[in-house]
Amino acid sequence: MSALPLVAAAVPVAMYVSAKLSLPQDVKMIKSAVGARREFDTFEKQGKINLSYRFEESYRKYPNREALVFEGKSYSFRDVHLASNKVGNWLLSKGVKRGDIVSLMMYNRPEFLFCWLGINKIGACGAFINTNLSGKPLTHSLHTATSSMLILDTELTEPVAGSLDEILGMGYTIYTYGGLGHVDFAMPIDLDSVSDADTYKHLPHKTMADETAMLIYTSGTTGLPKAGRFSHGRADIAASFFARFYNFTDKDRIYICMPLYHSAAAVLGVCTSWLVGGTIILTRKFSATGFWDDCRANNVTVIQYIGEICRYLVNLPESPLDKVHSIRLAHGNGMRPDVWSRFRERYAIPVIGEWYASTEGTGSMNNYNTGPTGAGAIGFYGPLARLLNRGLKIVKFDIETEELIRDKNGHCIECQPGEPGELLCVIDTSDPGKNFSGYHNNKEATSKKIVKDVFKSGDIYFRTGDILSRDNDGYYYFGDRVGDTFRWKSENVSTAEVSEVLSAYPDCLEANVYGVHVPGHDGRAGMAAIVAKETMDWDKFAEHALKNLPRYSVPLFIRRRSQMEITGTFKQRKVELVKEGINPSIVKDEMLWLDGHHYRPFRNEEYQRIVAGKAKL
Question: Which residues form the AMP-dependent synthetase/ligase domain (predicted)?
């Protein structure tokens, strides 16, 4: 069995702290969790679990306060309330009932929020379709939704038109909403004559905790997208905990440039703001060049990031205005350790709130980070928090079979501090925050995420598919996604670790590391797609890699790219790169290979030497 290696970068000695120093964050986490659960219990007793109540409660308190700003236009809570009432009443007129699913494919714009809120107000559920999809992934997502209505952004008619016959064959009726334009295959939503009176109160009342508030799809980086069921109960608890832990108030102005079809923006951005009565500053999409000007112009206090967003921001040319802003918190997930300190110091960010969670998963963690201790960690559980929350376990994992390693009794083996393994999160059907609702209309994918008899007979855990490690003090560090770690020369190579080392080289703007099959060789060799400055010296880059990585981890192949292909949620795409491999007749980018201690051009001649077994790798 090939257990995972120790990830040297994962547990820096400088990040160790005493248990005494961990107590404040533990107490903060426990108080936030207890407060969130009590608040949820109150919602349940009142029959107000439905997410629409979170908005309505703030509307009742602050009807004339600014709830939303989009492209210079301001909307009060009253404006949003009345607009969503119109959508809700229109849906009812079209026969949509409590429990029905309405597919929503729309860019970030006020109409997205009006539709989402209107859907929930009548007790229905929105299926949030990724706006980057077309072809098979799009039709698969719409089929999976088991819906008969699609509300479509007028700017997104082209991908739907490309698969129109198949979509109509599923029984969809298509409506367009938001913006200008008209297409023959869809009817525009006209709300001018629709009442803005409150929708029927009994429709959202007594919504159950496990009822689905929205379907949020996985990114589809390892296959077709899966529709994760995000329940009302889980959204309530997540927003309530988040608001407490990160000190959100009605004075906060949160900048959301992440896609609303993703749970990060929808739940931890929008729902948190609705809960406290804050203001959402919404943009169509992320723009590195416009980001800070937007924040300054709108007096933003909280910014949200995901994936590689912060790397793009630190790669901007320096400006005397870098520290001129009113931001108190940057929260999100996926900020890499090599970016963390540079981002904080350059832009003078007081608190980085890195959190770990997944749309469909049952566990989460947070790192309320105000200084160098714990920088780069995706979460923290000190001794007290671990004593009270035993639901997160890192267990030994075989990277070749991609299976959990079990002992002679058939139970999983928990990793020691500093030892990487797969994170498992307990499934508890009595707790809305820990209940795995599964994937909508996909029993097979749901069953693959569940593992039973983990530590004792009958227990059930959720497989995250993430390789993590924990240090002695309770800081958790991300290693890789399952399948990203590969073997070369009988050694295990962590793509995340290699990427961090390569990205530390000044002229390397972005590195996407993966393993590729090489003719005549066992395992997979390391390859890195690199976006580099024009001043890149590849000999010095090779020297940097060889100095800071074991020889077997240094990428044998480099693929030069002008820009990196990413998902809609700013995660690097690898599947296509892995499939294309190293064959110059397939790969159109310029390639280099490690020849001794230097990166030299890799063309068909060099490739044929490898195929013929004449090249030493």
Answer: 55-424
What is the per-residue pLDDT for 366? 96
- A 10 A CB-CB count for 471 gives 20
Determine the structural domain holding residue 501 and report its residue range. Answer: 487-611
Q: What is the tens place of the pLDDT at every residue in 333-361?
A: 999 888 999 999 999 999 999 999 999 99
In a domain, 12, yes or no: no
Instruction: Give the C-alpha separation, 345 to 12, whole Å.
Output: 20
Q: Is residue 433 part of a domain?
A: yes
Tally the domains of the chain. 2
DSSP classification of residue 155: G
Please state the φ and ψ torsions of residue 605, each to the nearest 5 degrees: -60, -45
Confidence (pTM):
0.86
Q: Is 407 exposed, middle or buried (0-12, 13-18, 19+ CB in 10 A)?
A: exposed
pLDDT of 97 higher than 60: yes
How much is the pLDDT for 484?
A: 86
Using the Cα atoms of residue 558, residue 562, residue 568 and residue 571 in order, give the sign of their dihedral.
positive
Residues 6+ apart with CB under 8 A from 523: 486, 487, 488, 489, 490, 515
Q: Which amino acid, one-letter code, is at 50?
A: N
CA-closest candidate to residue 558, choices 576, 538, 574: 538
β-strands 73-76, 227-231 pairing: unpaired
